[in-house]
Amino acid sequence: MLLTIDIGNTNIIGGVFDGDRLLAHWRVATDYARTADEYGITFFDALSTRRAEPKAVHAVVLSSVVPPLTPVFSKMSQNYFHSVPLVVSSDLDTGLTFCFDQPKEVGSDRIVNAAAAYARYGGPVIIVDFGTAITFCVVTEHGKYLGGAIAPGVRISADSLTQRAAKLPTVELILPKEVIGKNTAESMQSGIINGFAGMVDGLVRRITVSLGKECRVIATGGQAALIAPVSETITEVRDLLTLEGLQLIYRKNQPTVSK
Predict the structure, then answer these.
(1) 181 to each of 159, 188, 194, 231, how far by Cα in Å?
(2) Catalytic residue ranges
(3) pLDDT tens, position by position, for the chain (259 residues)?
(4) Would strands 216-221 and 125-130 be described as parallel, antiparallel, or unpaired?
(5) For residues 16 and 58, is the Cβ–Cβ distance under 8 A?
(6) Where are the domains of the chain?
(7) How far is CA 226 from the centre of its chain?
(8) What angle do CA 100, 106, 112 make, to 5 degrees?
(9) What's the whole-model pTM score?
(10) Which whole-number Å values give the CA distances from 227 to 88, 112, 133, in the listed order?
(11) Class for the domain spanning 2-87
């Protein structure tokens, strides 16, 4: 089995594949203070709870946008799964050609999302990842990764609003019945959710004009399912796109006899 790990600023997502089949996945909070042993125990428990035998894990692949945690998970992987992890970077075979000023600056989460979307749908495709930040990645029909855009995430924007405006409460992020809110909570929900949908649609349309071609738009990440229903441009939500990309890149970077 292959253990896939996506280390994000807010959450860490784990998954285990048997061949091309995702057997189980889980999400834990990102915590800089936790040790390799603490994460190892957490991942062992997550696998066992989902009836996936930890000892059956033969390899690990990870992407990380949190540099201090990369060596922690490398140590965890070696101590608990007896495997040196494959760490995603633009240097690996991803199926993409990077047309970016500094390819090494492309976040590994963006790389795996783009690789997975292009392998599944072809191009041109825009991938919108609703994480701590909202990232837009653009891949052409020829597999060229052009770049994209980065905007503040939904959750951190909502938190900033309540922290900076004394009279505004913390609200649950759900779509209100009407665009015009009838109270403070509904007004905030409408502004946050409809506002971000409008931002996504606006950027997607500008990217499409720049490319001169219509694009499939794939959304992933924590708030994708929240924003997609009111977006006019999102084609499909694929929650586990990052794990799919990790499995794909691992497979591409094994010796031919092992594929």
Answers:
(1) 19, 8, 11, 18
(2) 109
(3) 999 999 999 999 999 999 999 999 999 999 999 999 999 999 999 999 988 899 999 999 999 999 999 999 999 999 999 999 999 999 999 999 999 899 999 999 999 999 999 999 999 999 999 999 999 999 999 999 999 999 999 999 998 988 888 888 888 888 888 999 999 999 999 999 999 999 999 999 999 999 999 999 999 998 999 999 999 999 999 999 999 999 999 999 987 544 4
(4) parallel
(5) no
(6) 2-87, 97-245
(7) 15
(8) 115
(9) 0.91
(10) 28, 22, 14
(11) alpha beta
Fold of 97-245: Nucleotidyltransferase; domain 5 (3.30.420)
Q: Is 145 exposed, middle or buried (0-12, 13-18, 19+ CB in 10 A)?
A: buried
Q: Residue 216 carries which side chain, given as an amino acid letter?
A: R
Question: 37-40: long-range contacts at Cβ-Cβ below 8 A with a sequence spacing of 24 or more?
Answer: 37/76, 37/79, 39/12, 39/72, 39/73, 39/76, 40/76, 40/79, 40/80
Q: Residue 57 contacts by C-beta under 8 Å, 6 or more apart in sequence?
A: 1, 2, 3, 16, 47, 81, 83
- Residue 229 DSSP class: G
Q: Find out whether 137 and 15 touch, Cβ atoms under 8 Å.
A: no
Residue 91 phi/psi, 5-degree rounding, is -75, -15
Residue 128: count of CB within 10 angstroms of its CB: 27
Domain 2-87 shares a fold with domain 97-245: yes
